[in-house]
């Protein structure tokens, strides 16, 4: 049964468990990630390693239903226990540097997000770099959105969510919609979003606290597989948020131990500074996309409940506005 208990507040400090997890990750994954070469065999190793970690530290609720879609777009419908199709849904864009993950690796996170919110989740399976460089992933994400609209969903009945590089892909899509005056989703929910593809922000944060999972330099080498040969100032890569007043409300969650907490803070400031609505949560001591790793970070489920409450608050505000208008 889906819980309606209010989500707990964001912790004010890290826990012993999160501190220990960060240390273990640094001397495990953190060391390994810096040694993997950025060639075809290395990418295969990285994909296998991350898939194994996501599988071991994720947790798919019993009773989850998965339905694959293979044409005209690729992805998976993921429905948590007791969740059924209805008027509303979540469109999920996974991350991992445009090169590593898939709809399958994110099945656990999608299922738990579905269970928390009561909404079906469609995880788009966009093509990966280096086999498919820029702008392939962005094109696949846009195609997935357009396909959902052909399935009978209205833009305002969709929530768009994603993590890491998926955050950049989502922001790009929404800014494209703003420029073309296209309808936007009801909300955007981003976990540890990557915004600065040069990793300058991440490198600055790294000097304050080292990310336990990966270095800024190693992460940039992965992202460069997608952006190779493209000017970093390209407007689809270096995003300009001056149209933020045309974007939906954002909920941004990041871990306090990760270098992309700098990107999360930057995005929040850009959105609010240009007339948008944004709620930022930085969870002390936690790592990159901790929401996907409940066996490592017990706070993962609490974070998803905060997503549920964020969406419920938007629904309540919209209903109040509608009642006043009538």
From TrEMBL:
Boundaries of every Alpha/beta hydrolase fold-3 domain copy: 91-291
Pfam families noted in UniProt: Abhydrolase_3
Signal peptide: none
GO molecular function term, any single one: triacylglycerol lipase activity
Record keywords: Hydrolase
Family per similarity comment: Belongs to the 'GDXG' lipolytic enzyme family.
Protein name (Swiss-Prot/TrEMBL): Acetyl esterase/lipase
